[in-house]
């Protein structure tokens, strides 16, 4: 199997931070957003021989290269650098396909999604559904109250996808599902994608073939978090810190061994390599191994913040 992580986006809603860091490099609970999907790839390695992983880039590509070259989860990652035009999910896939093997199945994944599930083998199950039913695409989805409202939706009749988008279809019996950023795709879809042209895998490719090809949804029970804007990013940080499970903490500790510390009015996740007094912590905080020690020493109080490298992030940073 081939896999493509989509990491070329501009992350405009998290500016000014994303003027310096591409969004996949922004840490969430001490792990860069672009590494979270590695939690679930192990089940695919044994199931389907996932050996070929490509990451596409556009914005600050060298930072994306460094992120994936220095992670401990997967060896031999290749890069598809887009220039001078960002190509979108379909156009980026077409360009990246020059690095693929001849395997039929492609795993296409956003590189900045955050969700948590107890079903750690869901990718293997979705892959089995995809291949058994000979689907063009199998979209991993969840129930969400804002599907078809705040967010676009995958509209289904049972498992069959009948419509894609925020607009409600005329068939009122269709159920809206929220796409969590991962799908399996048959490589024949590449035949319908133009070279060197920006295009979207949903609106330019899949939606055009819903009447002639089998496109299905795979339902996952999970908690998904919006991290694309500052308010939701910090709300997600607070919520996940309050509910951090052992599986996620083990994953964090592979990258940055960290302690959960109860402090005034909250809890903080602090890298074990950081020396800081609990008296300086208030609310919900995350402090990375990369945090500047001089910055940490200069702060009289750390409150509802994320610290990494030379950055001290809180809501006022983005205002």
Summarize the structure.
The protein is α/β, with parallel strands linked by helices and 319 residues long.
Question: Can you characterise this structure?
Answer:
Residues 3-242 form the Nucleotidyl transferase domain. Keywords: Transferase. Pfam families: NTP_transferase. This is Mannose-1-phosphate guanyltransferase. This protein is of the alpha/beta class and 319 residues long. The chain has two domains: 2-225, Alpha-Beta Complex (Spore Coat Polysaccharide Biosynthesis Protein SpsA, Chain A); 256-318, no CATH class. It is built from nine helices and 20 strands. Helix 2 (42-48) packs parallel to helix 5. The protein is globular. It starts with a strand and ends in a 6-residue tail after the last strand.
Sum up the overall morphology in one term.
Answer: globular
The CATH topology of the largest domain turns out to be Spore Coat Polysaccharide Biosynthesis Protein SpsA, Chain A
Average pLDDT: 94
Order of helices and strands: EHEEHEHEHEEHEEEEHEEHHEEEEHEEE
Helix content: 10-25%
Label the CATH architecture of the largest domain: Alpha-Beta Complex
SS summary, helix count: 9
Rg calc: 20 Å
Largest sheet: 9 strands, mixed
Number of strands: 20
Helix/strand/pairing category? alpha/beta
CATH class of the largest domain: Alpha Beta
Low-pLDDT stretches are none
What percentage of amino acids are in beta strands? Answer: 25-35%
Supply the number of structural domains.
2
Ends distance: 43 Å
CATH homology superfamily name of the largest domain = Spore Coat Polysaccharide Biosynthesis Protein SpsA, Chain A
Keywords: Transferase
GO molecular function: transferase activity
InterPro entries: Mannose-1P_guanyltransferase, NTP_transferase_dom, Nucleotide-diphossugar_trans
Organism: Pseudobdellovibrio exovorus JSS
């Amino acid at each position: 199997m081939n896999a493509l992580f989509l990491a070329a986006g501009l992350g405009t809603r998290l500016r000014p931070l994303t003027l310096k860091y591409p969004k996949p490099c922004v840490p969430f609970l001490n792990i860069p957003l672009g590494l979270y999907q590695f939690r679930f790839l192990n089940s695919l390695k044994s199931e389907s021989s996932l050996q070929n992983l490509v990451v596409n880039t556009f914005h600050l590509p060298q930072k994306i290269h460094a992120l994936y070259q220095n992670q401990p989860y997967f060896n031999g990652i290749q890069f598809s650098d887009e220039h001078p035009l960002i190509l979108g999910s379909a156009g980026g896939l077409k360009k990246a396909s020059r690095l693929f093997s001849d395997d039929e199945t492609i795993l296409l994944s956003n590189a900045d999604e955050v969700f948590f599930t107890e079903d750690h083998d869901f990718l293997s199950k979705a892959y089995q559904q995809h291949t058994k039913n000979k689907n063009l695409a199998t979209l991993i989805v969840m129930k969400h109250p804002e599907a078809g409202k705040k967010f676009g939706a995958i509209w289904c009749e049972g498992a069959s996808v009948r419509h894609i988008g925020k607009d409600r279809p005329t068939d009122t019996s269709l159920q809206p599902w929220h796409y969590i950023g991962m799908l399996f795709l048959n490589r024949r879809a590449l035949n319908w994608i133009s070279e060197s042209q920006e295009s979207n895998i949903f609106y330019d490719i899949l939606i055009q073939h819903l009447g002639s090809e089998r496109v299905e949804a795979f339902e996952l029970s999970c908690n998904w978090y919006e991290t694309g804007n500052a308010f939701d990013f910090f709300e997600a940080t607070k919520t996940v810190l309050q509910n951090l499970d052992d599986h996620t903490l083990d994953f964090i500790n592979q990258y940055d061994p960290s302690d959960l510390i109860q402090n005034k009015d909250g809890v903080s996740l602090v890298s074990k390599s950081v020396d800081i007094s609990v008296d300086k912590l208030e609310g919900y905080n995350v402090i990375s191994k990369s945090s500047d020690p001089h910055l940490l020493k200069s702060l009289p109080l750390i409150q509802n913040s994320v610290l990494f490298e030379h950055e001290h992030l809180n809501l006022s940073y983005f205002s």
